[in-house]
Every structure is written in structure tokens, then in C-alpha cells.
Amino acid sequence: MAETLGTVAVLLLAVYGAMEGIRRLVTFLLYPPCEEHGVCVLWFRGHQEDAEFTVRCAAARCRGRMPICAVEIDTDEETHAVLEKTCRAVRAVERFTPATFCKRFF
User: Distance from the CA of 15 to the CA of which of 29, 40, 44, 86 falls in 20 to 30 A?
Assistant: First the structure.
């Protein structure tokens, strides 16, 4: 019985390893490394109910290949707090005001 469970566990790990290898190969082929990286700019104005969702979706889509800039233009306190917390939690996301954005990129 123990041999059967061990064999099943090894087979499941082998299948998982093969799937992960195929995923990495396809990702490498579809998104080859490049010299120039872009910047994903997300603009937030006023009250945004889906601010956290927008930032997390952009981070998932970019997968660390490019930095994400969340620019706040006259956001309310709730949106500001959500963006601040989300930008701390998600890597490669920075929070800017229009003035700091212009200083950084122009």
C-alpha cells in the first residue's frame, strides 16, 4: 500500500514538473527578454471602487517585466489608503502624484 502511494506521489510530482517546464518554455518563447522595458501607467482620479483590482491585474499581467506606476490625481482618502496598501503589497508597483511622476520620468 505504501509503495502504491509513493508511486502515485512521484508520478504527480513528475507531471507537475513537466507542466511547469512547459509553462516556462512557452513564457520564454512568447515573452523573450528585451533590452528596453516599458512602463505601465495607471491613472486614478476621484473615487475608484476597483483600484486594488486594477493594480493587481496589471501586476499579474506584467509579471515583473516592467514597472507599474499608479498615479493619483485628486483621489479621495479611501482610494488613497487602498492604493497605498496595495502598492506596498505588490512588487514592481510605485505610487506617484503628478508632480513626482513628472520629476521621475521627464
Answer: 29
Put simply, whether the predicted model's pTM sits higher than 0.85 gets the answer no
Average the pLDDT over 62-66 and give the result. Answer: 79
Could you give the 3-state DSSP secondary structure of residue 98? Answer: helix
| pLDDT > 90? residue 86 | yes
Q: How far apart are CA 84 and CA 72, in angstroms?
A: 10
pLDDT (tens digit per residue) in 37-60: 688 899 999 998 899 999 999 998
Q: Cα-atom radius of gyration of the chain, to the nearest Å?
A: 20
User: What are the backbone angles phi and psi of residue 101, rounded to the nearest 5°?
Assistant: -65, -45
The 3-state DSSP class for residue 38 equals coil
Residue in 85, 82, 86, 87 with CA at minimum distance from that of residue 100: 87
Cell 500500500 belongs to 1
First vs last C-alpha separation in the chain: 67
Q: Which three cell numbers stand for residue 15?
A: 507531471
